[in-house]
Amino acid sequence: MNATHTIDPREAAHFGAQAAEWWDPKGPSAMLHRLNPARLGYARTRIDDAWGLDPRNRRPLAGKSALDVGCGAGLLSEPLARLGAAVTGIDAAPENIAVAKAHAEGQGLAIDYRACGIEALAGERFDLVVSMEVVEHVTDPADFVAGLAGALADDGLLILSTPNRTPLSKLALITIGEGFGMVPKGTHDWSKFLTPGELTGLVEAAGLAVVDTAGLSFDPRSGFAVSGNLAMDYFLTARRNG
Fold first, then answer.
1. Is there a domain that residue 3 lies in?
2. Beta bridge partners of 162
3. Rg of the chain over CA atoms, in angstroms?
4. Which of 19, 82, 219, 235 is the most exposed place for a label (fewest CB within 10 A)?
5. For residues 42 and 226, what is the distance between their CA atoms, to the nearest angstrom?
């Protein structure tokens, strides 16, 4: 990874400004709360498949370490901790980390939260690395993905999610989502969205092999669900080659 810092200060400030309301399911992060069940469902399936675990096991990550990159106030970090993982959560906005720490303490969860970028973890490696809806907010996606790969243990699992750069994502996330106040204005820059092919290229260049992709679809009646349609948003799972 080159010396380019992947944190965009404007992006960090944008999300840090929402920190106090991050855990409010009706606040600015309401869409993330609605996304979380689909995210967790997809992650759990990939975790069970990768390590041959019993889907009925309530703590499948016991004995494993997990890194949540761009953790916000901990919406995904906390469920990973409840699944048994020793969780480290990092975020570019110190305001988010402060809220994450306070909330985790209130839940009796021991999570190692740090206000930093992926570059700060040089030398640390984790069994599971997750980064949901983050790669489209960094200054250098290739550098960022290389950092994620560098944090992955040899038998580790990387799970990403990000919007696809399609007319549908522009309509759904920006025209409708931001236009009607469901997502804070300025959250998305459509030109920075990555197609599955582009993200796959970055992942492979970082020495990983893509083992699964899946779409994230939305139905007004039932909410978000994992699907075969990658047009709006998608997941990508990778492991180290060899």
1. no
2. 234
3. 17
4. 219
5. 7
Instruction: Output the pLDDT for position 241.
Output: 67
User: Containing domain of residue 184, as a range?
Assistant: 9-240
pLDDT recorded at residue 25? 87
pLDDT tops 60 at residue 216:
yes
Q: Is residue 4 part of a domain?
A: no
Does 139 fall in a domain? yes
Segment 141-182, tens digit of pLDDT = 999 999 999 999 999 999 999 999 998 888 887 878 777 667
Number of residues written out for the chain: 242
pLDDT tens, position by position, 68-118 = 999 999 999 999 999 999 999 999 999 999 999 999 999 999 999 999 999
Tokens describing residue 148 = 């994620």
At 43, is the secondary structure helix, strand, or coil?
Answer: helix
C-alpha–C-alpha distance, residues 209 and 149, integer Å: 11
The answer to the question of residue 2 being in a domain is no
Residue 104, classed as helix, strand or coil, is helix
Which phi and psi angles does 162 have, rounded to 5°? -165, 155
Phi-psi region of 63 (alpha: psi -120 to 50; beta: other; left: phi over 0): left
Number of domains in the chain: 1
Q: Are 180 and 152 in contact (CB under 8 A)?
A: no
Q: Are strands 126-132 and 152-163 parallel, antiparallel or unpaired?
A: parallel
Give the type of residue at 113. Answer: Y
User: Could you tell me how far CA 102 lies from the centroid of its own chain?
Assistant: 21
CATH code for the domain of 62: 3.40.50.150
Query: In this predicted structure, what is the pLDDT of residue 172?
Result: 81
